[in-house]
Amino acid sequence: MDIQTLTYLFVGASFALYIGIAIWSRAGSTKEFYVAGGGVSPMANGAATAADWMSAASFISMAGIIAYAGYDASVYLMGWTGGYVLLAMLLAPYLRKFGKFTVPDFIGDRYYSNVARTVAVICVIFVSFTYVAGQMRGTGIVFARFLEVDVNVGVVIGMAIVFFYAVLGGMKGITYTQVAQYCVLIFAFLVPAVFLSIMMTGHVLPQTGFGATMLDASGNDTGVYLLQKLDQVVTDLGFTAYTDGSKSTMDVFFITAALMFGTAGLPHVIVRFFTVPKVHDARISAGWALFFIALLYTTAPAVGAFARMNLINTVNETQYEKLPSWFYNWENSGLIGWMDKNGDGKVQMRAGAPFDGKPDYVGSRKDVQGSHGERMLKNAPTDNNSEVYIDRDIIVLANPEIGNLPAWVIALVAAGGVAAALSTAAGLLLVISSAISHDLLKKTLKPDITEKQELLAARLAAVVAIIVAGYFGVNPPGFVAQVVALAFGLAASSFFPVILMGIFYKRMNREGAIAGMLAGLLFTLSYIVYFKFVAPDMNSAEHWLFGVSPEGIGTFGMIINFLVAFAVSRVTAPPPEHIQHIVEDIRVPRGAGHAVAH
Amino acid sequence: MSDELQHYPFTLLSESGREHLQRCADLAYFQEGEIILDAGESSRHVYVVHKGSVAELDVAVPSERARLGVYTSGDIFGAISVISGKSRYRFRAEQQTLCYLIAAQAFISLCEKEPAFADYFRQRLVEKGRRLAEQREGGVTMAGFMLARIADCMREPLVMAAGSSLRQAVEALKQHGVDSVLIEQQGRYAIVTKTDLLTALVLEERGVDTPLSDVAESHLVTATPQDYLFSALVRMTRHKIARVVVMDNAKAVGVVELADVLSYFSSRSYVVGLELEKAENLEALARASARLPELVETLMAQGVKMRFAMDLLAALNARLMSKAFEMTVPADKLAGACLMVMGSEGRGEQMLKTDQDNGLILADHLSWPDCASDMERFSETLQTLGYPPCPGRVMVSNPDWRGSARQWRERILRWADVGDGEAIMRLTIILDAHAVAGDVDLLERVRDALFERCRDDQLLLQRFARPVLQFSSPLTLFGKLKKSGHGIDVKKGGLFPLIHGVRAMALEQGIRDTSTSTRLKKLVAAGAMEAAFGEDLQEALELFSELRLKQQLAQWRDEQPPVHGNQVMLQQLSSLERDLLRDALKLVNEFKQRLSRRFHLEY
Predict the structure, then answer these.
(1) Chain A residues in contact with B407 (beta carbon < 8 A)
(2) Is the ipTM of this complex over 0.85?
(3) pTM
(4) Does the domain spanning B150-264 belong to CATH 3.10.580.10?
């Protein structure tokens, strides 16, 4: 069977699995009436949480970024994992005791203020939007490659599927569907990694293979470490050494912190903690989730390194006509572009962009071909000798092909990519639609709205959300990356301090919270807007405040938020008595207050 | 037939649809008295009356009540028969009649092509349900009692000044031949009954000049003239009194006496209630209890609305429990204990007696060392009265389901904290609890704790509401009823999500009533649900209950074990009932979606 048939088969089978589980879990007529929630084991719940957590960004993009940026990309690994720990340990248990389902609801009630609630809603919507946009792009790439369509068409197909899955299918609430998705995605991620690790280093575990010595073609140990070799290869080509960072330590620290605090407030993961009834079980399932997440996150660096190595070995200095077929396929999807600048017919990989922007082709390959059969580009060439553009997001998907793995592994990876995008996108869509219909409309703007209108508003919000996300998926020229940085920075600088102080500092009042949120938000927003949009040419380390890049400035904004909130709360009236009681109460474990009689 | 085509519902058709009809319609002539379409016959045409008139007759009932409707010029009949395959009623020409005939096949294909036209025939659930119920109500008015309003049976009230003496009151009672007198004081009413007078004059030896206001009872049990007479009976049973005062806009307009109601009442059903009331020992109680299913069947046969029948049954069941309780428990403990019934009995939605679902709340200071053995005996007593023990052991003989008010409050807090399936079930049970004997306030105070703890805890409410999604609706992807050899489970597919969803909303809104239909009304009043949707759910609830009850009654008669008590066999339903069932299940589906949103169940 060829790759395409296998892909249809695997993606189709995984869908059939999810739908089958959904039907099975509802149809059982022998079931009791009140087992929901109680019957799911903490391990299953952990897997479900992990599926929610690991998005297409984790599955598809992260290893790609690592493959390209090397050490610099480690901020994503640390930031996102750290964010999860922060969320599981510091926020979720207390939010759960407060008895509010959404973060805006918590903020609105804790600070007895609709203004605070509205600011929080806007943050939630903003963060979720950028996240969904990333998912859309991810699914788009998967479909583009394996259905052999343009990436934009792929995004539209992905939109339809996610919409059906999340909004019409109602399959989100079923833990075992999520568990199945986790299994598919982790399997899809690990199998090629293990294969490549064995082929390149002889280690079964990619995690150890990453730090091991390489084998040559006949399987003998060369004695050269993988990373050593990679460093040498990339510096030869003019790139920064793979294991060296170009960012200052300060900047790395700030970016990591911004990602951490920004992700800690991700609403679609918080709700997962609420679905487990017992606190004890919730803790254990958080532990399992961390384990399941770590399984992928610790593999990603190895995948990135293997891919980079194989990619250079396969593509660099190779005659275009002799390239493997995956190169042409991705070129057809619009994610690879080659411009034969020196006219030697060979592909040169060098540091720097080969041409301005993303590839912009003249017609399709059928209509217009270059002298070697390549697709012709309209882009203006740069004056370096780099010749090839390879979209980072294809690394994980192309990895098995680059490494010459069997066709079924390639198909499996496609199914995994779709699973990762689906579970996260569906969760985020629900969050957006409920934030708009429930938190914004019902609780703030239009309290007299009927239930029916609320339902309609929720549907509409989901439709709009998916269309906007799809738009960003189709038109991402650097934009998503920028907005993602912006979104996490804004989340970190606006509502993380407010949540934290809402839990741990009972003297914090409405005035302090609003002033803090606004101060943090405005500072971060103006910094990012200035460097990203007003004066992009000034966007370099020597102009930055304390050498902190716009990606990391959210942490700075967060500190400002803390300070302003604290100062303002000291000079204004303390919060009402009952709020202070509630805050004292959330930190006392339930059940400690009263004797348990039987 | 161009004239007819200019009128509703044909105006719903497109131009081409109408032209098509115009072409394919035939004209037929029927003589006076000719049967055009007989009951049980399959119809090959849809009929549009051009001239003359056609009667619709129900062949199953005596001729004087058989005429259900008349069709004259422009009216359509036979369409439902074409859709359902068989005619339920007989259609007979009442005079010489000309009809246009539309071939069944043409009609069906037209319906498929033109959804608006098809929708006309698949009318709204509520409208059809109402018609069905009205039909039945019409029949019942002739039977006499069940649908009589209070206004039909009340007496003029005898109202006297508050300062009148007892002597004047006795004279007035004698003169008017009544048993009670109302006194009015600043717009408020109080009642003095013959018994009150006797007690005052003979037992308390008060003077005949004592003012009436000294002996009057100011807590009145009232009703409005529009209430069903039935509900007055329910209230009398519940409060153990013999009359209710009829109020209209804060003015007393009448009094309904038990004796009057009874004289109105020729059916034997109330006899059960009387027997119950008179029973002084367990044997007598058991005899009365055994006749309850019979009463239910009588009520159903008379076509009484489910809601009223349920209310009466709940009141009778409660009296039965309460009597049994009083017979079992030492008299000095009664004031410090509260017997509550729970689950469907607590909601007043149990038609046939099923398991014992009950619990006991004791006042904190009460010491009752024999409580365990007394309750053991009470459970056994109920068993002899025909209430089998609850398989989940939700009953007073289980120490988990009895305790002091303080223990109960602690239990509730613990269940709310744990929040797993078991705990949620227990909260559900106590939320539906209804006090039937002893000190009612004890239960109310326990329930205070329940509402206070749960109302604002969205996470708990989410877990509480989650079971509504536990079972999928027995509808296909295209909104048709699933064909299942084992029948359709109306409890899992319809009743449970409906009742539990309404219950969750009631908890959220702090509504303390226990019956689903009252909860629905209060939810609408609180603005938590649109009025029209509330009514629709009410109709759906009644339909499910009725279908289930029919099935259960059939089993009770045939003495089958109630294994499939919740399964409704589609084959045994009329096409109208099937349509109603389908629409009701769709409604429940919509309700589930709303609940998902309201309680964040999508996650």
Answers:
(1) 597
(2) no
(3) 0.70
(4) yes
